[in-house]
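Retro notes, structure queue

What went well: the backlog is down to a handful. What didn't: a couple of records were mislabeled last round, so from now on we paste the full input next to the output in the thread. Example, using histidine kinase from Pseudomonas inefficax:
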Amino acid sequence: MLTYARLQQGAPAPKFERVDLDALPDRAIEEPAPLRAEVRVVRGECQGADGEGAWVEAEPRYLHRALQNLVGNAMRHAETEVRLSYQLGQQRCRIDVEDDGPGIPEGVWDRIFTPFTRLDDSRTRASGGHGLGLSIVRRIIYWHAGRATVGRSAALGGACFSLNWPRQQAPL
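Corresponding output:
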């Protein structure tokens, strides 16, 4: 809740730097591994690295936090697999986090990033979750001049969360 409150006070002064997209998913895969041993987090197909590597301009700490939130949510809802992948173009980047869980009903896709939204009524403060993780993700990617979206995973059948933003940030 403190993170959300800090982020609501306005945009921090982001320190954009080159972030290695090949390293970012690896770190996000290693960290949540102990959450649910029966769910494996794998790296999906990553496309678009050029001769200079798979880099994007981003605020590394906040981008990592957004990805960490998405992977943690996916692990809670997956049955056996969570997959991270990216697509890197000349102008834009997209990271996808997919799972093989029940997915998210299309009727709530437009409000899933709204603060305090919880789709599972059994989740209370006592059992964990305040419904802020996805709104934090949306705020972080907004600061990167991007968008966070949700859809259905074509490959795994569950949810697919996508972060899409410019590969290079406009000067401040």
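Agreed that this is the format going forward. Reviewer comment attached to the example: The first strand starts at residue 17 and ends at 20.
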